[in-house]
Automatic annotation (TrEMBL):
Positions of the FAD dependent oxidoreductase domain: 9-400
Record keyword Cytoplasm present: no
Any Pfam family the entry gives: DAO
A single cellular component GO annotation: cytoplasm
UniProt KW keywords: Oxidoreductase
Keyword Glycosyltransferase: no
Protein name (database record): Amino acid dehydrogenase
Record GO terms (molecular function): oxidoreductase activity
Organism annotation: Thalassospira profundimaris
Amino acid sequence: MVGLKSMQKVIVIGGGVVGISCALKLQDDGYDVTVLEPGQPGEGASWASCGSIAVSEVVPLSKPGTLRRAPGWMLDPAGPLTLRAGSALRVLPWFLRFAGNARPSRIEAISREISVLTRTALVDTQALLASLGLSGLLRHQPVIELYDSARDLEHERAFHDARRALGFELEEISGAQAAEMEPSIAADFARAVVLKDWRSVVDAKRFVAELHRVFVERGGQVRHISAQGFAREDQKVVAVQDDRGDTHVADQFVISAGAHSRRLAAELDCSIQMEGVIGYQTSFDDPGVKVEHGLIYAKGGFGITPYESGLAVAGSIEFAHLDAQPNWKRADILVQKAKRVLPGLKTEDGLRRFGRRPLTPDTKPIIDRIPGIENVMLATGHGQLGVTLAATTGRLISDMITGRPLPLDMAAYRVDRF
Ligand SMILES: Cc1cc2nc3c(=O)[nH]c(=O)nc-3n(C[C@H](O)[C@H](O)[C@H](O)COP(=O)(O)OP(=O)(O)OC[C@H]3O[C@@H](n4cnc5c(N)ncnc54)[C@H](O)[C@@H]3O)c2cc1C
C-alpha cells in the first residue's frame, strides 16, 4: 500500500501555512509532493497574522455585535472594519450570506462546527512540529484579552460562556491581575480574559519558512510558479497549467491558494463564496517594552504578539478587490491604538505587512473534494484561523486523499454548503 502511494504524485497549489501543512502530511503518508508557490514562503496572509493557535475563536465573525457595529465602523476611518470604495456591489452577495449567519441558531451551530476542528488544533500543531523537529516554533504562554470596562466584557460574556460550554478554558481576571501577568500593559484596564488554551508561534513568517525547509529536506519540491488553469480528462484533472504555459502532471491536486483559491476553483466550474479580507501587521525589532503573552485589545479589534524578533501589532478587516493595493494608513492606526495597550511601545522603524484572509460567509473553512472531479481537493477559506487550523486541515486532507476513515463528519466544511 505504502509502496503504491509512494509512486503517487500530489501537487499542492499554494505554499502558505495551509498548503505547506497539507504537503507535509501527504509527504509523511508516502506521496511524492510538489508545492506550486510563486512567492516566498509565508508571504501570503500567513506572515501578517498574529500567529495565535486560537483554539476557542469559534464564534463566527457574523455574531450580532459585529453586525450591529459594522455600519458605524465603516463610516469611521479609524474603525476596525472598512469597505473600499468600489467593492460594495461585489461584496454584497457575500455580505448578505454573512448577515444570514447572525441568527442565534446559526451562531450556535457554526461555533460548534468550528470547535470540532479547533478542539484538536493545538495537539495537531504540536504533533506536526514534533514530527519535524520544530517544537521550538511554539511559545508556551496563553493569550490575554483586555477590556476597557466591565460593560465591554459584559457584551462578550454570552460568547465566552458559549466557548466554555464547548470545553475551552477561559479565565476572567481583573485588569490589575492582567497587569501583574504583563507589567508593560496600561494599568487601567478594567477586566481581562486569559485564553488559557491558546498558544502563539514564535514568528509567523519563520513558522511557514521552516515548514518549507523541512519539506524540501525530506525530498519535497517547491516550484516558484503560479497555477493558472487545469487540463481535464473526463472527471479527473490530469495536470496544472502554470503562468509560463508549462503543464505539471500529477495524480492528485490540492488547491490551497488562500484568497486566490476562488479563481482557481472557478476554473473547475466550482463556485466558492469567499472574500480576501485584508489585515495589516506592523512589527518592531526594538519595541522598548517586554511582553511575554499574546495580547488582544477587544475594543480595538487587534492583537499584539511577542515574536522572537520583537513585537507585532496585527488586525483590521478591510474588504477590497484582490488586486487592491494596501492602505497603510490602516496599519498606522493600529499602531497608534496599540499605545493604549502598551504605553511604552516605541513605534519607530516598524515593518509593515499585509495579507488577505480567505474568509467565507460562515467563517468556516472549506475542506472538501471539488464536486464532479475525483482528484482535486480544496483546503481554503480559513479566515482568521489559518495558522490555528493548518495542521488539522493537513491531517484531514491527507486522510481524504489516502481514503482513510475520517475521524469526523466533514459535511459542515463542504464547498457546496453555501
Ligand atoms: C492581521 C491578521 C491576523 C491574523 N491572525 C491570525 C491568528 O492569530 N491565528 C490564525 O490562526 N490565523 C490568523 N490570521 C489568518 C491567517 O493568517 C490565514 O487564515 C492564513 O494565513 C491562511 O493561510 P493560507 O495558506 O490559506 O493562505 P495564504 O497564507 O494567503 O497562502 C496562500 C498562498 O498561495 C499562493 N498562491 C496564490 N495564488 C496562487 C496560484 N495561482 N498558484 C500557486 N500559488 C498561489 C500565495 O502566493 C500564497 O503564498 C490572521 C490574518 C491576518 C491578515
